[in-house]
Design a protein that fits this description.
alpha+beta, 3-stranded antiparallel beta sheet, 4 helices
Length: 88
């Protein structure tokens, strides 16, 4: 799974925002705000990846157990799907 092209992740104050660029800006109105963990996952998903890799990377980076991490990963992925931000 991979983030669709046409979006940029940018730091803003103490968070991160995802903004549409180019033709994507016409179809997608607004911005998405992410915390540090969301931005971490977003960056990993800019390249094609899978849940197993996301789980390994997030548990290596943060002090979190695998079950809790997978719950957060699943919620994050679902939010991306709901916003139609995942590529095919």
């Amino acid at each position: 799974m991979k983030i669709k092209s046409g979006f940029l992740l940018r730091p803003m104050a103490d968070a991160f925002v995802v903004v549409p660029i180019g033709d994507t800006a016409v179809d997608f109105n607004g911005i998405i705000s992410l915390n540090d963990t969301g931005a971490f996952l977003w960056k990993l998903m800019e390249d094609d990846t899978d849940k197993k890799t996301l789980l390994k990377k997030i548990t290596d980076e943060y002090d979190i157990d695998a079950d809790t991490a997978m719950t957060h990963i699943d919620k994050f992925i679902q939010k991306l799907k709901d916003a139609d931000l995942l590529g095919k």
